[in-house]
Specification:
The complex is a heterodimer of chains A (426) and B (262). With 426 residues, chain A is mainly α. Chain A has helices at 2-25, 40-53, 56-60, 99-108, 123-126, 131-141, 166-173, 187-197, 203-206, 249-258, 269-276, 283-294, 311-332, 358-366, 391-403, 414-420, and strands spanning 73-76, 79-82, 155-156, 224-226, 231-233, 368-369, 381-382. Chain B is mainly alpha-helical. Chain B folds into two domains: 46-117, Cytochrome c-like domain (Cytochrome Bc1 Complex, Chain D, domain 2, Orthogonal Bundle), CATH 1.10.760.10; 133-261, Orthogonal Bundle (Cytochrome Bc1 Complex, Chain D, domain 2). Helix content of chain B is 53%, strand content 0%. The longest helix of chain B has 22 residues, at 12-33. Classes of the chains: A mainly alpha (426), B mainly alpha (262). Chain A binds chain B through residues 63-64, 250-251, 254, 257-258, 260-263, 271-272, 274-275, 339-343, 366-372, 374-388, 424-426, and chain B through 33-42, 44, 48-49, 51-53, 55-56, 89-91, 95-96, 98-105, 107-108, 111.
């Protein structure tokens, strides 16, 4: 009896130690070495392009600050973490790093000293990046202006503040491994899959996360709430209602490259992605991404809420219709078809059919212009209504646009609206 | 340069042809790159694109009876542009402004600034003062003479004799509501309104007491708007003033204008 108890005790202690030890010493990909590069300038230029594809600058630059010098706070459910300085400054940046160190960070989520990196750095996606591409990005980052700016320590709650415990997170949710092309698919599809799954880290927002911040299923891109940001990342699956089933490949490519399309315009956090990253990618890379995204299968449970319209709902929808006719109809039109690309259609808009109504609620609050891009150099915008409409009115008009023109979204209550009033836009 | 050109193109007709060729090539390129969606007849002008602004700033940017949204019509374009850039880049904090234009290019912001600078809708009547006549008189002195002992320059030294602004980037103050003006002084004090360094208005505000601010805002809101408020006539030209204190946003604008001239 005593022996059994001792064995169990040993297992309880040794099991976790084994996991930590394994994660600490196991370095998959360390056998992949840099290939010799003849044209360094070309390597740097390719690295710059790839850094844009990965939108590295977004998290590693504070608004209006020095590029790549870090400092931007990433708010997570576990506390704040700050993007570090990745300029080639020797003391505060990554000036002392080697290409092997950088590869290990990208591929295996470990810092130069071997410490586990927090997965706010999307290495579960970046692990798909090839060694050659990682080397190019590193060459580019070593070539930019060094900036002396000390890193800020993470402000995370216990136990998340203990980096060692990330060993367990990694064991559960992190599978290192370069992208493996599928021979049954076209070169275009494979290029798109590589960019979407890897540097594009689309799944970081478009795949829902569990309570520990892990992506639940194998990167299904079925959409989900973005933790802490209070925006809903739409489904990228082929679902005709909530996903991209009714979009053409061209619609997807237009949206990614220009910020607007015949089917809708970007808003919220996706504006930053288009502005800082996607608009700079080549037409062929964008088309590849669109081709791949269009092939993502429908997920099992379509994320739609549809409730029967009760009598009191008719009152709400009546109020919504009146507000719509007064405030919205000029641009979005009585038939809800809008005037694409300037004013997106609301009829058939997938943002309006998702279970969460957060996106339309916040769009009505804040309004906003589509990002300026080369393909849409003079964007149109929507005014904010947080000052002109109260919670009840916004609930009514959002309910109306979610349930009119065949849209299958549900009713929204003033309480839902109040939750998001006054939220910072970012 | 001219000689080199004449080798290829000798007469005016030829230049015209070249120009047409260039235009059609550019148009072709544009069409190739434009998205495939069916373009509907959306009015393409700046008035349409700037329409979201007037939801708060009033018809033609003349402000509304709600005192919290300032008049933007007829302000010097450089001033409007500076403020748009400050909002976009987070130097000035206002949730709605920060969100609206977060991902817009300098070029777009310049277009908005030029558009509202060119408008001259009528002004609201002066607002009745909320402070005593003696306080108003003190504000009058402060606004027109300053208080050198407290390092406070006169408002008129920069904003123009009639407080109608100075080119290219110093705003007019007449026609602004008392509550908006008071809010701005508060924002300089708590750092939610910043400009390019040196931030002259933030420095001046440091020397102002709450009584000064109450008196000044009342006095400014009481001023009659000059009859002729056309921008080119009423806004003082850049050379008309010598700043009593260094202002980052003014220096930058002047440099830019000089660059454009060169």
């Amino acid at each position: 009896m005593k022996r059994i108890a001792l064995c169990i005790l040993a297992l309880i202690i040794l099991g976790p130690l084994a996991i930590i030890g394994f994660q600490w010493f196991h370095d998959p990909g360390s056998d992949r070495k840099s290939a010799a590069v003849a044209d360094r300038a070309q390597l740097v230029a390719r690295g710059e392009y790839l850094a844009k594809a990965g939108n590295c600058i977004a998290c590693h630059t504070v608004r209006n600050g020095d590029a790549y010098a870090g400092g931007r706070a990433i708010t997570t459910p576990f506390g704040k973490i700050y993007g570090p300085n990745i300029t080639p400054d020797a003391e505060t940046g990554i000036g002392k790093w080697t290409a092997d160190d950088f590869w290990r960070a990208i591929h295996n989520g470990k810092s130069r000293d071997g410490q586990f990196l927090y997965p706010a750095f999307p290495y579960p996606n970046y692990t798909k990046v090839t060694r050659a591409d990682a080397d190019a990005i590193f060459a580019y980052l070593q070539n930019i202006k060094p900036v002396t700016q000390a890193n800020k320590d993470p402000e995370l709650r216990f136990p998340y503040s203990r980096r060692t415990l990330l060993a367990f997170w990694r064991a559960l949710y992190f599978k290192p491994g370069e992208f493996e092309p599928q021979s049954s698919q076209s070169a275009e599809w494979n290029r798109g899959a590589y960019l979407v799954q890897g540097l594009g880290h689309c799944g970081a927002c478009h795949t829902s996360r569990n309570a520990l911040g892990g992506t639940t299923t194998s990167a299904d891109l079925a959409g989900g709430m973005i933790p802490m940001q209070d925006w809903y990342a739409a489904s990228l699956t082929s679902d005709p209602t909530t996903g991209l089933g009714n979009w053409t490949t061209r619609d997807v490519a237009d949206l990614l490259r220009t910020g607007v399309s015949g089917r809708g315009a970007v808003f919220g956090p996706m504006s930053e992605v288009v502005y800082g990253s996607l608009q700079h990618l080549s037409q062929s890379d964008i088309e590849s991404m669109a081709t791949y995204v269009k092939s993502v299968p429908e997920s099992e449970a379509p994320d739609v809420a549809s409730a029967p319209v009760a009598e009191d709902a008719r009152t709400v929808l009546g109020l919504g219709a009146r507000i719509y006719r007064k405030q919205c109809v000029e641009c979005h039109k009585a038939d809800g078809k809008g005037m694409p690309s300037a004013y997106p259609a609301l009829a058939g808009s997938r943002s309006l059919t998702a279970q969460s109504a957060v996106n339309p609620i916040r769009m009505v609050f804040n309004g906003g212009y589509a990002p300026t891009t080369e393909g849409n150099p003079q964007p149109y915008g929507m005014p904010p209504f947080s000052g002109t409409l109260n919670d009840e009115e916004i609930a009514a008009v959002v309910s109306y646009i979610r349930m009119n023109w065949g849209n299958s979204g549900g009713l929204v209550s003033p309480v839902d609206v109040a939750r998001y009033r006054g939220l910072p836009a970012e | 340069m001219q000689n080199a050109m004449s080798g290829y193109c000798l007469n005016r007709g030829c230049v015209k042809k070249l120009w047409r060729l260039l235009c059609s090539t550019l148009c072709g390129l544009f069409l190739l790159h434009s998205p495939a969606f069916a373009q509907q007849a959306v009015p393409g002008g700046i008035a349409e694109r700037a329409a979201p602004c007037i939801a708060c700033h009033g018809k033609e940017g003349r402000a509304t009876s709600d005192g919290s949204f300032p008049r933007i019509a007829g302000k010097p374009s450089g001033y409007l542009y500076n403020q748009l850039v400050n909002f976009r880049d987070g130097r000035r904090k206002n949730a709605q402004m920060n969100t609206m234009i977060a991902y817009m290019s300098d070029q777009n912001l310049k277009e908005f600034a030029d558009y509202f600078a060119s408008l001259q809708p009528p002004y609201p009547p002066p607002q009745a003062p909320t402070v005593s006549p003696s306080e108003l008189e003190r504000a009058h002195m402060l606004a027109t003479q300053g208080d050198p002992a407290r390092n406070i320059p006169a408002c008129t030294a920069c904003h123009g004799e009639k407080l109608t602004g100075t080119q290219p980037s110093i705003p007019g103050l007449v026609g602004l509501s008392r509550s908006y003006l008071a809010w701005q002084f508060g924002s300089w004090k708590d750092g939610t309104r910043k400009a390019a360094a040196p931030d002259c208005m933030a420095q001046i505000t440091e020397h102002l007491t709450p009584q000064d601010i109450a008196a000044l805002t009342s006095w400014i809101a009481l001023q009659q708007v000059p009859v002729d408020m056309r921008a080119d006539k009423s806004i003082a030209s850049a050379g008309a003033i010598k700043l009593p204190i260094a202002c980052g946003s003014y220096i930058e604008q002047q440099r830019e204008q000089q660059r454009e001239k060169q």
